[in-house]
Design a protein that fits this description.
31% of the residues lie in helices and 24% in strands. It is built from eleven helices and 16 strands.
């Protein structure tokens, strides 16, 4: 069987990670990535051997900088079976007309409105909905992280309601324009934040309210969760459930901060110190008066990457069993090694 031809439109924080993950799959191949300017990420893509495509009016500027350009972004889309749009939030919607014109399947990221595609995607919760689909949105890093813990809890015990406060990182490590520097910013000031409603695009029956605060850090997001379950369980039951899930890592061994988790990722030899799994602080899991409480950290740069790979596999009908796709993706990327 021939490999699915995947194009990555946008080679920034998410795009470069999706490209590397797709390149590891034996049923997919990267036909090219797009860049709008010849910066260090374009240089890295060239060093990795990815075909680089650029806007037609920018091709000469790339060539003047010594790049070999495979063609325009339109040429790349024409050559693809599916495009993973990793352009900055609110930009991807402007590319939809091109994908529709060329009859190419497309995946967008969580920075786009839920209206951009008929399906919002999570590998565990609604993989089947994306089988054969033309357009899918992989939900944001925070929403992905919430779905990964809410879905198994709901399947096992039933979820009555979820209340979550999200302490968001102010910007990614390489983002020199974001803030805040010396403040905690209510983001938004009026409840709820978009995260709860976004969870409902995947699990509409979940009663969830979310609040978010932006903090002066670049490492990870931190979730403070309070969940009322329909069936009684112990903290140990929840710990065992989370430990059994393919993309949840229980964090212990003296780790009590997001910076330590990133250092742990470095020690594990993770590329870019990525933590693709939810990082649940094991000792924080507690049940009091029938309500579950815990903290989890979400690596905003990487947790959606395996979801994008699974979305490709579903949309291209390469695998109809979500657990088999998750297992295949995890094995190729090195997700699941516990220590």
């Amino acid at each position: 069987m021939s490999k699915v031809k995947v194009a990555i439109n946008g080679y920034g924080t998410i795009g470069k990670r999706v490209a590397d993950a797709v390149a590891l799959q034996d049923d997919m191949e990267i036909i090219g990535i797009s860049k709008t300017r010849p910066n260090f990420e374009a240089k890295t893509a060239a060093m990795k051997g990815y075909n680089i495509y650029a806007p037609a009016d920018k091709i000469d500027s790339f060539k003047n900088d010594g790049y070999t350009i495979a063609g325009s972004i339109e040429d790349m889309v024409k050559a693809a079976d599916i495009v993973v749009d990793c352009t900055p939030g609110k930009i991807g919607v402007s590319n939809k007309a091109l994908y529709e014109k060329e009859g190419v399947k497309a995946i967008w990221q969580g920075g786009e409105s839920k209206d951009i595609a008929p399906i919002s995607f999570n590998s565990e919760a609604n993989y089947a909905d994306a089988i054969g689909a033309d357009y899918v949105r992989v939900v944001s890093c925070n929403t992905t992280g919430l779905c990964r813990v809410i879905y198994p809890l709901d399947q096992k015990y039933g979820v009555e309601k979820v209340r979550v406060t999200i302490v968001r990182r102010g910007g990614d490590p390489g983002d020199i324009k974001s803030g805040p520097i010396d403040a905690l910013v209510l983001d938004p000031i009026k409840l709820p934040s978009h995260h709860g409603p976004d969870v409902k695009t995947i699990m509409p029956h979940i009663n969830i309210t979310s609040a978010a605060i932006k903090a002066p850090t670049s490492f990870m997001h931190l979730h403070v969760l309070n969940i009322q379950l329909k069936t009684e369980c112990s903290a140990e039951d929840v710990k065992n459930l989370f430990a059994s899930r393919p993309r949840i890592r229980m964090i212990a061994d003296g780790i009590s901060a997001t910076a330590q988790i990133i250092e742990f990722g470095r020690d594990l030899g993770r590329p870019r110190n990525d933590m693709w799994e939810n990082c649940v602080f094991r000792d924080s899991v507690s049940v009091d008066d029938g309500e579950l409480y815990f903290f989890q950290a979400i690596h905003q740069e990487s947790d959606v990457i395996p979801e994008n790979v699974d979305a490709i596999r579903a949309m291209m009908s390469l695998e109809k069993d979500n657990l088999k796709s998750i297992e295949k993706t995890n094995k190729s990327m090195g997700i699941g090694f516990k220590c």
